[in-house]
Amino acid sequence: MPYKWWTRDPIGVEETQCKSLLHPFTAHHSECPNRLVINPYTGCQHRCLYCYGTYFFFPNYFDILQVKINAPVILENEIRKYKKSHDFFPPVYISPATDSYQPIERRYHITRQCIEILQAHRIPYYIMSKSDGMLRDLDLHAQYSDQCMGIWTITSLDENRRKLWEPFTPTIKRRLHALERFSAENIPTAFRVDPILPYIDDSPDQLEEVVAACAERGASHLTVSILKLRKEIWSRIEAFLQDQNEENLLKKYRELYFNPTYRRGSYYYPKSKYRQKILSFLQNLAKKYHLSFGTCLEGMPHFNTGPCDGVCLSPLKIRPLQQKFK
After folding, report:
1. Which of 1, 191, 302, 316 has its CA 20 to 30 A from that of 294?
2. What homologous superfamily does CATH list for 12-311?
3. Residue 152, phi-psi category: left (phi > 0), alpha (psi -120 to 50), beta (remainder)
4. DSSP-derived pairing of the beta strands 35-38 and 92-94
C-alpha cells in the first residue's frame, strides 16, 4: 500500500470556539516584516507532504480540521481593541499556517466573513493560498483592489509531482487561472515558489517555466524559499522517498542537509553554496520577467529587490500622530 502521512479519510471536521484570532507574527530573519495574522482554520485538507504548519498546532493536523466558527465575532472585537491602543493598523496576513480557501470554506464561509469585517474597518489584507477558491470571493476582493493582494503558491507545473507531494490541492492550471483573473481585476498578485524541492523541481528549465507562466498572467512579485527540514517533516519525506524507491535521492538529501553548521533552531537548511546558486538564478529570472523579488526565511536579504512577500499595502492610519513640542 502506498505510503500515506495521514490516517483518516476523509479528514475529520470539528467546530471549535477560538479565544483569539488576530496574532502578531514576529520576524525571525531580517527580510520578514512584522505583521498581524489570522488563521480561520486549524489543520488543512490539502495535506502537502512538506507542510510546515504541522509544527504550530497539533499532531492531528492532517486528520482533523478545526473550524473556528466564532472567528468573525472574535476578529471584530480584537480589531476594536487594537484600534484603541495603536496609531496604525498594519496589513493583515490571512492564513500563513493553513489555507483559508481549502474546500471546507465552501460550507462555512469563515474567510469571507473575516474579509468583510476587515473591509468594513478599511484594514488592508493579503491572502496566500494553493487554491482557486479565492475566485468565489472575487467580487469582494475586486471592490477593495487598492487595499488587498492575492498570493498563490506554485512550485512546479508538473501535475504528477503535484499529485505526489500536494495530493489534495487544486491543479496548477486552476491556480494560474485564479491568478490571471485577479490580475485582470487590477488586484495586485504575487506567487511563491516555496518550497523548492532540491533535485526534484530545481532545474533551470523547471523554475523558468513557473516564473514565465505566472508573469504572463500578471503577477508582479516572486517570493522563493528552499525546503527546510524539521524532524517530523524529514520523517515524512524520508518514508515517502523510501516508498518510492528513491534511494539515490535519499542519499543526496542526507548529504545536502543535516550539517550542524546549517541548523537554525529546529530547522536544517541546505548547504549555503546550493542555496546561493538557486537564489541567484531566481533573482536573475525575476529581472528577466520584470518582477520584484524576495526570499523567505533564507537569512539572505541582499537578494531581495522588494519586500520579501511583495506586499506594498499601506497600513491603516487610525489617528493622526501627535506632534511633540519641546
Report:
1. 316
2. Aldolase class I (3.20.20.70)
3. beta
4. parallel
pLDDT at 100 over 60: yes
Residue 168 near residue 191, CB atoms below 8 Å: no
Q: Does the pLDDT value for residue 31 go beyond 70?
A: no
**pLDDT tens-digit profile of 124-141?**
999 999 999 999 999 999
Confidence bin at 63 (pLDDT 50/70/90): very high
Domain range summary for the chain, segments of one domain joined by +: 12-311
Q: Is 159 exposed, middle or buried (0-12, 13-18, 19+ CB in 10 A)?
A: exposed
Instruction: Report how far apart, in Å, the C-alpha atoms of 16 and of each of 36, 66, 115, 179, 227 are.
Output: 22, 6, 20, 32, 32
Q: Which amino acid is at 132?
A: D
Q: Residue 1 — pLDDT band, cuts 50, 70, 90?
A: low
Which amino acid does the sequence have at 265? G
Alpha helix ranges (H) inside 223-289: 231-243, 247-256, 272-288
Which contiguous run of DSSP H or E holds residue 179? Answer: helix 172-184
- d(CA 196, CA 261) in angstroms, rounded, equals 21
DSSP 41-94: EES-TT--TT-SGGGTS-TTTTTEEEEETTHHHHHHHHHHHHHHH-SEEPPEEE
Cα separation, 177 vs 254, whole angstroms: 37
- pTM (predicted TM-score): 0.95
Q: Which of 267, 247, 243 is nearest to 257 (CA)?
A: 267
